[in-house]
């Protein structure tokens, strides 16, 4: 048996597992921050409160990037060590730290565009601000025209009915009723065919389930209009 140093890879795997658990906490925090920010816009809170939530999301995205670098540095270090002979084993801590610092030195703001939860937050917040902050302008237009525009935005291009659980296509930006678009994708998949975006005039010809994210901003607008409609009927 070799008398060289031994490494407990199970202990390292356990440490990696702990890091990945931390990542799930960050993801949960980002989900909560997104909901809070949308609540603030919907309830017409001070813009400073919404800005603070944007800063919180940026901090979460920064932590997520740093954690990803730690995980990648550990994984690369483990793979390198497994290829080394026992007598040539490097200092694991220093090697991992070097790899981590090298990744961190390449950080840029464009990295956040690869963070799906952060980009989802930005997209949904933009939609909510557009809908709620533009209300005063819309109300100055002929009321019938404004209502018609809203109803068109709320209609699923597949079912031709008001959406209940809208999902947004990350690629082309169009929204559909979740069950309807998933059923369409499944049906075409069985026929080994691609799904063209059902929104009239859209040129996107390969809609996939992975393209879809919940359209929380649109759902809130639909729910708000439904409440107003019921309120009008009750009076």
TrEMBL record:
Q: Where is the SP-RING-type domain?
A: 141-227
Q: Name the major location.
A: nucleus
UniProt keywords, alphabetically:
Metal-binding, Nucleus, Transferase, Ubl conjugation pathway, Zinc, Zinc-finger
User: Per UniProt, what is one Pfam family of this protein?
Assistant: zf-Nse
List, alphabetically, the InterPro entries matched. Nse2(Mms21) (IPR026846), Znf_MIZ (IPR004181), Znf_RING/FYVE/PHD (IPR013083)
Q: Which GO terms describe its molecular function?
A: SUMO ligase activity; zinc ion binding
Task: Give the record's GO CC terms.
Answer: nucleus; Smc5-Smc6 complex
UniProt subcellular location: Nucleus
Q: Which GO biological process annotations does it have?
A: double-strand break repair via homologous recombination; protein sumoylation
Look up the record and name the pathway of this protein: Protein modification; protein sumoylation
Domain of life, per UniProt, equals Eukaryota
Q: Can you tell me which family this protein belongs to?
A: Belongs to the NSE2 family.
PANTHER family associated with the record: E3 SUMO-PROTEIN LIGASE NSE2
Q: What is this protein called?
A: E3 SUMO-protein ligase NSE2
Specify the species: Cyanistes caeruleus (Eurasian blue tit)
What is the organism lineage in this UniProt record? Eukaryota, Metazoa, Chordata, Craniata, Vertebrata
